Amino acid sequence: MAMQLQFSYDKKKVLQALRYHFIWQPEMRILLVVILAFDAATAILYFIGKIRPEPFLLGSCIWLLFIISFWYIMPASIYRKNATFKDTFTIIFRGDKVLLESTKGFAEWNWDEFVKYSESPNFYHLYFSSKSFFLIPKDNMKDEFKFELRLLLSEKITSTK
User: Is residue 161 in some structural domain?
Assistant: First the structure.
């Protein structure tokens, strides 16, 4: 049973998918919790008069920089550096492998090369490792195709997120 899909990428949706990828990373979640805890602790200490306002302001600035870099800088940087997002592809899902074709060539992966997959509102994320992944847009997919693809992914890739 082969399933085939032709697609290209929409920049706004890719940037949103990259944000999902970042928020799913454990180190990003830990950093977020540490920044929030520091900011909350300094806010409490400042409001009860135990510290001057500078540590609280520093925590607020760090929080703001984290949000700007996480939401805008990192996704835009990856999008700009990766020519993949400007090409058109045909992907074929077969029982033994996944084939990806474009005007520049093709790639094929056995199912066991994927360590996990996840789903965001506009994409399926197929992971080769915790940091390396491929995005498959849902734009051109009918509901039946999405359902069959979910079944195939859950059958062939044992770990999900």
Answer: no
